[in-house]
Every structure is written in C-alpha cells, then in structure tokens.
Fold:
Amino acid sequence: MGKHVVGSTGDIKAGERKIVRLEGISIGVFNIKGTYYAVKNSCPHQLAPLCLGKVTGTTLPSKPGEFLYGKEGEVVRCPWHGWEFDLTNGQSLFDPNKCRVKTYEVGVEAPGEEEPRLETFPVDVEEEQVVVTINR
Structure:
C-alpha cells in the first residue's frame, strides 16, 4: 500500500498510456487531455488485458435521427470482446448501473452488488512525476 512513481509527465503524454505492475497488480495509467487516470488492467467480463484495448470515443444521447459523437480519447474498448469503459469515471457504456469501475477517489460501491468491477487507482502529478497510489 502506498504511492508509486510510474514516470514523469513527459513519459505519458496526452492520449498515451503506460502499463505498470504495482504491488503485484497490472495497472494502466492513461493521460486524457492532461488528466491522469489509472485502472486495473483486467476486464471484469473475462479478465482480458483491458488496457491494451483501443482508446476511442462514443456516440452520445441525442434526438432521433441525430448522431452525436463525443468523449474522444476517454473510452477504452476491451481487446477480446469489445466491452467499453469510460476511463474518467469507470462506468461501462453498455450497462453503467450494474458494471461500474471501483474508484478509489470517491469510494462509491453499491453494497451487496455482485456485478464485476474494474479497479481504479488515484493518480497525482507531483513535481512533474506521475504517481499512482494503492490503498488496500
């Protein structure tokens, strides 16, 4: 448990990711528009290496006949079966109320929920160093 330097801000530029192993856990650290997010490198569906998936955007709610595209660079798609997760909040795109990422920043978990969750970890920038914190 603790803080781990995973590189400098120059090591993980906007739109890039870095996969690291911290305390025995494979974690993907993503730089999305200058903000860093860290998620466990394991899809809750069938444990695929989620962080190797394509990072993209998605269609947004819109009126009939309109197709709005957004969240570019904020969605990771599982390389095995295409399950998609919002990297900024950990929610799945297909069922955000049941399959959510466990986030350490807010600590929100539905009690007794049996759906799989993807673990995330808080990320800070300290003196140009990207730091991931693991709290167990």
